[in-house]
Design goal:
Helix content: 55-70%
Radius of gyration: 19 Å
Largest sheet: 2 strands, antiparallel
Transmembrane segments: 27-45, 51-71, 83-106, 126-148, 160-183, 195-214, 235-266
Order of helices and strands: HHHHEEEHHEHHHHH
Strand content: under 5%
Distance between the termini: 32 Å
Protein name: Carotenoid biosynthesis protein
Number of helices: 11
Keywords: Membrane, Transmembrane, Transmembrane helix
Number of strands: 4
InterPro entries: BABR_hydratase (IPR053540), CruF (IPR017823), CruF-like (IPR007354)
Shape: globular
Pfam families: Caroten_synth
Length: 286
């Protein structure tokens, strides 16, 4: 064990330490990792790499977990019993609906995974599915809270705006994922993705948004958003990673939609990396 390192005494100490870790490595986590991830995924899709290197599932899962750290740090202190139950219910739902989709084609359309995204449940669904799915919805929810301000206190506008943002996120994600071979649909209508997929996301997104809304204390989320300038950095990573992949394949509509998400982050002042406050930045500015 490294000298001077010790286990946090309690949850508050763990929160403080994780917040400091994310702030210290903010640029690396939210810019370097997605850029490197985009390059390696494109290399896996386009170059004759050895089998152990192409779409290495452990590399994919590790990179995803690292990019999730800002969101985990921000939300972690709010995980009380109600929020945890909501996450457990959503995990069960996401596994069930994904398994149904793989086996029957409903509600997303007939599709199959082209690569292993880590260990597979029943050999059919990624065990890490919640790691991939939850943050997409929660990032959309947090972005809407910031963009709507006080109007987000009204239930219907908050939920509808979040659901629209979730669909926007998938309009960026799925075309890029299909382009690099993560999964493949039998019917290809929008950059290789059938419109039925977005109907499925409408269903799953509604369930997820409602569960997040019921499970998390909104005042607590607003407080953490104010305390953690990095809390939406996972969405920054998403824009860079999937916007970059779509740009490589000239998927212009998804690129434009990724730029729209980026504009939302700029408006909320979440695209605000101060390099002088990062380890890389201190080296650059000296």
């Amino acid at each position: 064990m490294a000298e001077g390192w010790s286990m946090p005494r309690d949850r508050e100490a763990a929160t403080t330490r994780l917040d400091a870790l994310v702030r210290e490595h903010r640029f690396t986590i939210s810019v370097v990792f997605p850029v490197v991830g985009a390059v390696t995924l494109l290399a896996s899709a386009e170059l004759p790499l050895p089998s152990w290197a192409a779409f290495n599932p452990f590399f994919v899962l590790f990179g995803t977990l690292v990019m999730r750290l800002p969101l985990v740090a921000g939300v972690g202190p709010l995980l009380d019993r109600r929020a945890t139950l909501a996450l457990v219910a959503l995990a069960a739902y996401s596994y069930a609906i994904e398994l149904l989709g793989v086996r029957t084609g409903w509600p997303y359309g007939e599709f199959s995974y082209g690569v292993d995204l880590g260990p597979m449940l029943f050999g059919e669904v990624p065990l890490g599915l919640p790691v991939f799915f939850f943050p997409l919805v929660l990032n959309a929810y947090l972005l809407v809270l910031l963009l709507l301000g006080e109007r987000a206190e009204s239930t219907l506008p908050r939920l509808l705006a979040t659901l629209a943002t979730v669909i926007l996120v998938d309009l960026v994600l799925d075309p890029g994922a299909v382009a690099i071979g993560f999964w493949e649909y039998e019917a290809a209508q929008f950059y290789g993705v059938p419109w039925s997929n977005y109907g499925g996301w409408l269903l799953s997104g509604t369930v997820a948004v409602v569960l997040f809304d019921l499970g998390f204390d909104r005042a607590g989320l607003r407080r953490r958003l104010a305390e953690c300038e990095f809390m939406l950095d996972d969405l920054v990573s998403f824009v860079l990673l999937w916007g970059g992949i779509n740009l490589f394949y000239a998927n212009w509509v998804p690129v434009g939609l990724a730029a729209l998400l980026g504009a939302g982050l700029v408006r909320t002042e979440r695209f605000d990396f101060d390099l002088s406050e990062t380890r890389l930045g201190r080296a650059v500015w000296r």
